[in-house]
Amino acid sequence: MFGFIGAGNMVSALVKGAHANGFLTGENCLITDKSGISGPALAKSVAGRYLVSNLEVAKQSDVLVLGVKPQHILAVLAELRSVLETHQPLVISLAAGVKLEDIQMTAGSDVPVLRMMPNVNAAVQASMTAIVPGQNCTDEHIELALKFARTFGEAMQIQESELPIFTALAGCSPAWIFDLIDAFAMAGVKYGISKANASRIVTQAFLGSATLVREATETGTKSTANLIDQVCSPGGTTIAGLLAMQAAGSRHSAVEAVDAAVMQDMILGKK
Fold first, then answer.
1. What is the domain-level CATH number for residue 247?
2. Domain that includes residue 66, residue range
3. pLDDT tens sequence across 131-178
4. Last residue of a domain, which of 108, 134, 158?
5. Which of 6, 29, 84, 183 could form a disulfide with 48 if both were Cys (CB 3.0 to 4.6 A apart)?
6. Which residues are annotated as a binding site for NADPH?
7. Helix (H/G/I), strand (E/B), else coil: 47
8. Is residue 121 located within the same domain as residue 51?
9. Which residues line the annotated binding site for NADP(+)?
10. Binding-site residues from annotation
């Protein structure tokens, strides 16, 4: 039985993705939330059950997913501690910046806990998700968490020390990519194409390019540099545009964005 505390946008995306893939059904999905508005609607959409109490959800869950805000998660765990210590479900935290050590200490020393970091693309079952298992997690817990995460995209297991850079590359980058798509679309508008058509053109170019990179990476046949060379004809328009982008600092800007996100993650983690 999967239980979800919180029913915001991220939890909604995860639940709907897992349901669409047949991983979650009405029989194995419990949901509760503080507002009493989003939770019932989400439960109804997947034929799950809505319960009004965090404690009741925790008591009935084998896997408990905490989708509350980071500043509230430890208080929720403290409220549930006695149930968690008795029942010992796998506790999955979606809270950014709240370390395993603090989650473990609050949930109970023997409770299996795990951090999971999906991204906004879970809404279209295309998330890049990381899991970080705690010391009490078994191989079965890890496999179950990965299986769950793969219902709404790709997933990998990493070390907690790698989460800041993972968050930058997977969690923050969609916003940067959206901005880049919008910038290219605006350039299209400059030359007379409607914003809607320009956005459609650029979005498909990004989607196709990402697919080529993924296939080349998985097969090991080409690097991104090889793909760039494949598109850039000598003396052509592509190499002219690429060199202009690089001269304007495109690569440096990408590294600076990652640096800033990692630094901010570290600052937030100290608060």
1. 1.10.3730.10
2. 2-158
3. 999 999 999 999 999 999 999 999 999 999 999 999 999 999 999 999
4. 158
5. 29
6. 54
7. coil
8. yes
9. 5-10
10. 5-10, 54
